[in-house]
Amino acid sequence: MSEHLRTALDLAASQIPVLPLRAGKVPFGNCRRCADNTCGGRPNMKNSGSCVCPGPCHAWAAATTDPSVINSAPWRRAWLRASAVAYHPGGAGLTVVDLDNADAIAWARERLPATQTVPTTRGEHWLYLGAMPSTNGVRPGVDIKSTMAYARWLGFGTGTMAYLPDAVRALAVSKPAPPRPAPQPLTGPMPGGGGECRHRTPAFLERGIAMAEQRITAASSGVHNAVYRTFLAVLSTHGRCGCLTEEHITRLFTAAQTKGESARHCTDAWDNARTRLGL
Predict the structure, then answer these.
(1) Which of 197, 185, 211, 273 is nearest to 236 (CA)?
(2) Which terminus of the chain has a smaller tally of CB atoms within 10 A, N or C?
(3) Tens of pLDDT along 152-191?
(4) What's the pTM value of the predicted model, to 2 decimals?
(5) Rounded to whole angstroms, how far apart are CA atoms 276 and 279?
């Protein structure tokens, strides 16, 4: 039995819904029968359809406490490939305040009640007892992960878990409108630049950007992965011909942020796609 599978079964025994994460801290993609929700919808969502797929499809909605599912053949194959264990905080009646840097941690120590704290790669997870809607970017370096979201399992941490305070609920209510993204300009070599798409008509570019926006907007699970793959597709077609403008990039970033991505995640995905293509 793999370490991830053993951890998942232990958490499920404590009524914490779990799911496997692959490399990049993202859920496993939907199988063919579940692609584009043709299966009928997410399995653990009320009134969402009748998906009976045996695999860990549908991202956070696949999280379960059923040991027969977690230990089934499709899930065991996923656990062997998994890089981490994730859980659905809202399904366990919890809220995670994800603090992504030292400034965010300092703010939380000043403004939020002390609670159970788990160290992360760059910051801390503060766990509270109680569920609420998940919201990214409630303030710089702060995300809220609860219902309809997943968080990596990084251990129990330290401290005593406090009840979800009004101060955290108020963050989601008072979240400011996302600012216009300020994507980094394309500085890599772009043969034939000059702002025109030399290998296709301007209508081809416009259609491509519109389809990319639609692809991001339609993503029902694995939004991080969908945004990255969409950016990669746009750059692979137009990244070297010089036709992309800041307006085009802003449209893509805006579509991603509307789906809950932070400006930082958008910039990282864009830079990663450029790096992969050598731009």
Answers:
(1) 273
(2) N
(3) 999 999 999 999 999 999 988 765 544 444 444 434 333 3
(4) 0.64
(5) 8
